[in-house]
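Moderator note: this is an archived Q&A kept for reference. The question asked for a predicted structure of one protein chain; the sequence and the answer are reproduced below.
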Amino acid sequence: QVHLVESGGGSVQPGGSLRLSCAASGFNFDSFAMGWYRQTPGKARELVSTITSLHTITYEADSVKGRFTISRDNANSMLYLQMNSLKAEDTAVYYCNAPLRDGVLYSAWGPGTQVTVSS
């Protein structure tokens, strides 16, 4: 059974940094591309960044380029998102998942982790 648990969120001031983690289980993590998504109230969930199983970053939203870096540890089935120079508009609940051609691997989604950027 696929299971994804995000952690590492919190409250930071603009310009601060956070590192999000995603613990994956129940599937062959090292065989899937992975991605970070985020959602704010009243808006659709948006894709932030994706990485292949071989550690190639294949997508970064324009709004996070140069500030966020996705990475993964296949040996421990972990996905990470290093977020630097955070802005108020980065405030959202962040989720991880495996993007597929027609959706995502874990349709139920994990609990997410709240990131709040405010002075």
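Archived answer notes: The chain has a mean pLDDT of 96.
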